[in-house]
Amino acid sequence: MTTFHSTRSTTDSLTSKQAIRKGIADDGGLFVTDSLGETHVDIASLAGKSYQQIAFDVLSVLLPDFTETELKACISEAYGAQWSDEKITPVKPLGDDYVMELFNGPTSAFKDVALQILPRFMARTTPTDGDDNEKIMIVTATSGDTGKAALAGFADAEGTGITVFYPEGKVSQVQELQMSTQAGSNVNVCAVKGNFDDAQSAVKRIFGDRELANRLASDSHVVLSSANSINVGRLVPQVVYYFSAYAQLLEQQVINVGDEVEFVVPTGNFGDILAGYYAKLLGLPVKHLVVASDKNNVLFDFLTSGTYNRQRPFYQTISPSMDILISSNLERMLYYMSGKDTRLIAMLMNDLNQWGAYEVPEPMLAKIRSLFGTGWADEDQVREMIADCWNKNHYVIDPHTACGYYVMQQMPRDPLTPRVLLSTASPYKFPRVVNESLGLDASGTDFECMDVLAEATGTTAPAALRGLETANVRFDHVVDIDSMEDFVEQAAKTL
Ligand SMILES: *Cc1c(COP(=O)(O)O)cnc(C)c1O
Known about the structure:
This protein has helices at 16-22, 51-62, 68-78, 111-115, 118-123, 145-154, 173-180, 196-208, 210-220, 232-251, 271-281, 298-305, 330-337, 342-355, 362-371, 379-393, 399-410, 431-438, 446-457, 463-466, 484-493, and strands at 4-6, 31-33, 91-94, 97-101, 135-141, 160-167, 187-193, 222-225, 261-266, 286-293, 307-309, 357-359, 372-376, 419-423, 478-480.
């Protein structure tokens, strides 16, 4: 049977449902299964299948304790009419290469792929300690994108509630409106007086508060959980689109069954690209996975030197969702690349906590480097690439995708191996930077920028983003850092 344990020890033996409900292991490690790769997904039968059918093929291998009925219900609820393209993640030509759009979901960023289905998974897990009335309250601090995608996913999801905190005045106009106008009877949004790190640290304290946990359990039957990208239930839905890309390339007669492809992935927390590695372990013919970073290039340094060092300056860039110094999901890749050596992983993560750095053994680095390529782009290069991609291909990309586009341009191209760039956000989420890069007027509001961009490029803003200008604001709470815990407790009472 497929069971999950921590990357740092083998003591746990959890089903995938338990791992999804629990989120993170008690020792701080991430849940992994040693069965990964034992069963392959049949690639010969991919062509012609819908996204939903491919999702079923992949998820039934990765989450075997969900029944067929459960998985099919989760899939059809998550990948339905809320997506603006029936292919869900369409693959399109981009010059001699290809781009896969991951941003056609309700919040126009790739996190929708996972956060549309995670709440549906959670609703089908059951409490471990026998309290059948137990509800899950998701608590998240966000610097922008994750909060909205999580709100959209959990809004009105059975057995759950969600509370999102964001730093007051530190998110864009569009991002703030995306959150403050969120519909749903189980959602709460609150601005915090402080920066993102303050809010994030306070959320960690809230999770660690035993007395609060006891009060929530006895007064409101509520347990707290997080929706961040280390949850197994957020990782596995992303494996699906790698298979979907392959199916689409087969249908477009770019490849034959068995041919290898390459993926270039704008990377922050290493979730998106890790899913590509899982796809390879499940039998997808992947030649290379290319990690593209922004100016926060800690992964580039790691993949070139073998030393991961988080003691370095943090840059706030125009690709904010990739501004990360600790790439949490890397731990899972290291686990598999080390030959499933929990002791080594525990030691490395201890070094990271204690010294801010770790170094992997040379043979392991060589193995990693034979699969993972890497590169990074600074902010000037990101702006240049947005213009370059438009000029060469008449295709508008956002600043995150532009990091990947830059890295792809720098790589030698093997004409026999198709390359797919993963596009992680709609350019309309970042209309000001895009307009500046394209030499368009960027002096007005975000909405005026959207209109200028649409007019100049003949593209259309996603309705959900353009409509925010006139949407009804539901939440205008602002609290001190010290009052966040209270806010969560009040919100739990209304669940
Ligand atoms: C989250 C995010 C990324 C980075 O994805 P990871 O899974 O954290 O590597 C890249 N681009 C956008 C737009 C994102 O929202």
